Amino acid sequence: MVLCFDKVSLQRDDECILQNINWSIEKGEHWVLYGLNGSGKTAILNIINAYSFPSTGNVSVLGMEFGKTYLGEQLRKKIGFVSSSLQEKFYPQNNAFEVVLSGAFASIGLYETPTDEMREKAITLLEEFGCSEYANRRYSTLSQGEKQRVLIARSLMTEPLLLILDEPTNGLDFLAQEKLLESINNLANKRNEPTLIYVTHHLNEILPVFNKTLLLKSGQIFASGNTKDIIASNVLTAFFNLSVEVKWENQRPTLLRKL
Ligand SMILES: Nc1ncnc2c1ncn2[C@@H]1O[C@H](COP(=O)(O)OP(=O)(O)OP(=O)(O)O)[C@@H](O)[C@H]1O
Fold it and tell me: How far is the CA of 123 from the centre of ligand 1 (A)?
């Protein structure tokens, strides 16, 4: 079991942000987390990363049960987390190679001397994510798409067991988006790949590797299960309370409003 939420609720200032969330992820599954603005996606991710704790219910992530021991740092070493808000945290003078290397220490800059093994690993990851040509360029000169690929490579330095990609295509043009999705697809098809949780507002980004989907609405699970069953016209029409149609082409869905 990679993750288990058992009757998880989260209360803040008399407001119920999450309510009765039951969610389990098994090895071999890759999940999409889909919900409207304010539905509680970030609240769930914060709990997975042990940045916040549920008001009620039990959580275990990667075999570690919350509440039993302090597990923040220990847990976060095993979880890769990439979001567009992470992009601006890095020092502009560091080059892409250094940014990837810093992932080995889970630090923003490089304060320790990397081993030869770490350097080799960073070079391999830069190659795998198509970043070699700008490995020595200052991070600040990279485009958003290039930065995102560098940050995913960085997140893999510690060989995480779980990789969370939080709206990774934000601000990317169509080509940059497709290039990033291709890298994610390659990653998911590798042996010993981490389990992926992919948060998005764009259904057309759901790659075939994302075999499971959770729909979150107003802090509650609206539906969860096999992606093909969940990303369907009838389910999403009920979810949005608006008549929509899902078309699957080349194993990827497109959402259209039915007029
Ligand atoms: N500390 C807090 N106190 C009160 N309400 C909060 C707090 N943090 C978040 N919320 C509320 O909880 C709800 C869920 O927020 P969350 O950030 O998890 O949504 P989200 O699904 O990630 O949204 P988005 O897609 O816009 O990023 C929102 O209504 C938000 O205003």
Answer: 38
